[in-house]
Amino acid sequence: GYQFISSNTIPEFPDMKIVMDSNLNENLVFIRNSEGKMFRKIGPFWVNGIGDWEVSEGYLIKMLNDDPLKIYGEIINPEVPVGLNPGYQFISYFPDYPIDALLTFASILNEKLDFIRSSDGGMLRKIGPNWINGIGECKPGEGYLIKMFESSAVVYPNPFLK
């Protein structure tokens, strides 16, 4: 089915066709980025409308069956800021451990944020004066759909530093 994906790895060869090489089979239907550009099969050929895999970008992917995605390269520092633009976008989750979504996105829980949505439809959103966590924990490999009213940046916390 559909899910948002991300990776905390900067691929050695970022071309989407190279990154997805082990998944170029009948299970993969398409990958879409925040701009609506797609990587998909047209006839017998894979067409790369996205270009390179961007580590800060999350992606919407549609699969027909389970298929592991393996990306090899340099692991990004999980505290590198992820820029957020007004409107909708998919973003990466950098930590390699789960963190409660309220803590994960604490740096942007303000009037600039409309909502954050996970692949399973869980949402982090404001109801009245309170931010409600319908996501639970953010998970490695998951991407998130965010709607912002204004530009900002999220910096993932390190819960192991006190």
Based on secondary structure, the structural category is mainly beta
Biggest pleated sheet: 5 strands, antiparallel
Q: What is the overall silhouette?
A: globular
- Kindly state the number of beta strands: 16
Give the N-terminus to C-terminus distance in angstroms. Answer: 39 Å
Instruction: Please work out how many helical segments DSSP would assign.
Output: 2
Oligomer state of the chains in this structure: single chain
The side-by-side strand order for the widest beta sheet comes to 1-6-3-4-5
Helix content: under 10%
> Using only CA atoms, what is the Rg?
16 Å
Give start-end ranges of low-pLDDT stretches.
none
Q: Any chance you could write out the topology, listing elements then pairs?
A:
Blueprint: E1 2-5, E2 9-11, H1 16-19, E3 28-32, E4 38-42, E5 45-48, E6 59-63, E7 73-75, E8 82-84, E9 87-91, E10 99-100, H2 101-104, E11 113-117, E12 123-127, E13 130-133, E14 137-138, E15 144-148, E16 152-154
Structure at a glance:
This protein has helices at 16-19, 101-104, and strands at residues 2-5, 9-11, 28-32, 38-42, 45-48, 59-63, 73-75, 82-84, 87-91, 99-100, 113-117, 123-127, 130-133, 137-138, 144-148, 152-154.
Give structural attributes:
single chain; about 160 residues; mainly beta; five-stranded antiparallel β-sheet; 2 helices; globular
